[in-house]
Inverse folding.
């Protein structure tokens, strides 16, 4: 059996930033396990620009953003294995993995960082009626085919779901000569960033139909067309609103799901709202020494925040190992972080004042669009902070920073409540 | 008088900005909540620009395609010309981030550069 202090599962943006951070915090023995043939994860296929505005103060494309972190990992001489699939992680942190060179092998780790990312919601989870012809792809699959393999999946395209990947692919397919006829979204608002609607749809005159869904797929061998219908406020199609579109391709951009099969195998608690592990202020899961960051924890909108979060996980994993794998003594009770109203969840979910850094970032998403409001933070019944927001929306992640200094003034604190209030 | 309705892309708010124009001259910008909205609207109605990203084929590389971008933003009206100019370009591996793939693409005065490293086989 191999021995490493820290095993990082996944070599995408989260895994790379976590590894660099752990090394910079003094950890020598680190290995990244990546299942693809190169580091960088999904950024390799995200060839559009707009990455890194927060981190590098410049607008980079996905491969360039990944390149910066790949170079850093190389400069720091951090070990990694490519084409390597992790099969299982035990509660005692034995990582079982396999690849073509080593076959099946085991690594005993002192700490593990989960950085597996997320997957797209497939057709099977969407309950679309109709045949199962060729020509139906998740938007990310089409993105890989076009941008990495160099194939065009089709010529006449309809896109269901207005998530960012769907919007980006509407532009991408158009630039490669396809005709994108319409983007349909079940919800009355888009799940993507507003700037993507302007730059990817409006720029090319592609219509966005809100409160619409696909009710039928036509074609037995290959998609021949689809039928859209308007939906009512409960999401049910309204009879008589059906519209047929001829197309050979249907792309699905209907949400992302954190990929937590391995996490469940270890036995970490999963938060049902995010489908990601429940974590404390150190981004440590319910199993001590197992940390999580990036889209495996909760789906982010900006990779910059993934890198920031992963650096925190890396630093805390290093600290955990350097402290002799023992939880530091604490005199404070654990405080619960509670979402209220349209705030759907918080990451982290609990906080211990003794163990926290001088400042931590709490991130969350809301479940509905609200204009002209405050994002408020309550320590038990007392409102301690509020920030004016012109608008909050499900497509954009919110954050609140909590300072240790301030928390130390509330020794009997039980709950920190996050909510959105009308201005 | 001509009226242009825009959605500002400066921040998540996405203000509905209205620009009133007369013979190419901007008379009034309304609906924006901050200065960035005004700047965006001004550029958008006079000379809208975008960075274009795409891919080109690589011969003898570890992967078949390399991602590229225009080094700076180009006029919006040149987006398709730029995409077309890149369609039949082939380069030889190795390619490195920042390597110039096409100079003065579609007569914009802007180069197209690689955004990914592709090692030779």
């Amino acid at each position: 059996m191999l021995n490493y202090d820290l095993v990082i599962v996944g070599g995408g943006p989260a895994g790379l930033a976590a590894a660099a951070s752990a090394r910079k915090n003094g950890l020598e023995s680190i290995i990244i396990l990546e299942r693809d043939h190169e580091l960088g994860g999904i950024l390799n296929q995200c060839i559009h620009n707009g990455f890194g505005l927060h981190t590098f103060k410049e607008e980079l494309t996905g491969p360039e953003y990944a390149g910066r972190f790949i170079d850093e990992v190389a400069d720091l001489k951090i070990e990694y294995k490519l084409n390597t699939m992790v099969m299982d992680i035990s509660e005692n942190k034995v990582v079982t993995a396999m690849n073509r060179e080593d076959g099946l092998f085991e690594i005993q780790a002192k700490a593990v960082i989960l950085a597996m990312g997320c997957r797209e919601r497939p057709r099977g989870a969407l309950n679309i009626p109709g045949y199962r012809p060729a020509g139906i792809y998740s938007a990310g699959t089409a993105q890989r085919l076009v941008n990495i393999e160099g194939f065009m999946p089709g010529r006449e395209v309809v896109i269901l779901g207005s998530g960012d990947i769907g919007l980006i692919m509407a532009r991408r397919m158009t630039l490669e000569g396809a005709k994108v006829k319409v983007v349909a979204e079940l919800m009355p608002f888009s799940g993507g960033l507003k700037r993507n609607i302007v730059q990817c749809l409006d720029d090319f005159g592609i219509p966005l139909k809100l409160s619409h869904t696909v009710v039928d797929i036509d074609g037995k061998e290959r998609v021949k067309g689809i039928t859209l219908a308007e939906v009512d406020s409960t999401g049910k199609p309204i009879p008589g609103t059906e519209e047929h579109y001829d197309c050979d391709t249907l792309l699905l951009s209907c949400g992302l799901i954190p990929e937590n099969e391995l996490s469940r195998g270890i036995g970490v608690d999963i938060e049902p709202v995010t489908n990601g592990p429940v974590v404390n202020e150190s981004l440590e899961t319910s199993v001590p020494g197992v940390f999580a960051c990036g889209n495996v924890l909760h789906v982010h909108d900006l990779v910059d925040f993934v890198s920031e979060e992963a650096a925190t996980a890396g630093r805390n994993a290093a600290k955990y190992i350097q402290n002799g794998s023992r939880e530091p003594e604490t005199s404070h009770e654990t405080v619960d972080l509670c979402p209220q109203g349209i705030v759907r969840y918080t990451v982290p979910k609990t906080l211990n004042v003794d163990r926290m850094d001088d400042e931590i970032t709490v991130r969350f998403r809301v479940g509905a669009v609200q204009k002209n409001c405050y994002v408020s933070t309550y320590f038990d019944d007392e409102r301690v902070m509020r920030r004016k927001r012109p608008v909050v929306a499900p497509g954009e992640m919110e954050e609140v920073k909590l300072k240790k200094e301030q928390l130390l003034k509330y020794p009997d604190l039980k709950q920190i409540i996050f909510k959105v209030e009308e201005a | 008088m001509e009226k242009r309705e825009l959605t500002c892309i400066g921040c998540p708010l996405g203000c509905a900005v209205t620009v009133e124009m007369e013979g190419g001259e901007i008379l009034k910008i309304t609906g924006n909540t901050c200065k960035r909205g005004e700047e965006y609207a001004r550029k958008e109605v006079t000379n809208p620009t975008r960075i274009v990203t795409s891919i080109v084929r690589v011969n003898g590389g570890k992967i078949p395609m390399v991602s590229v971008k225009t080094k700076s933003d180009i006029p919006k009206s040149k987006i398709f010309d730029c995409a077309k100019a890149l369609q039949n370009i082939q380069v030889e591996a190795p390619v490195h981030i920042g390597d110039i793939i096409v100079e003065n693409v579609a007569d914009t005065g802007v180069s197209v550069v690689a955004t990914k490293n592709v090692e030779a086989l």
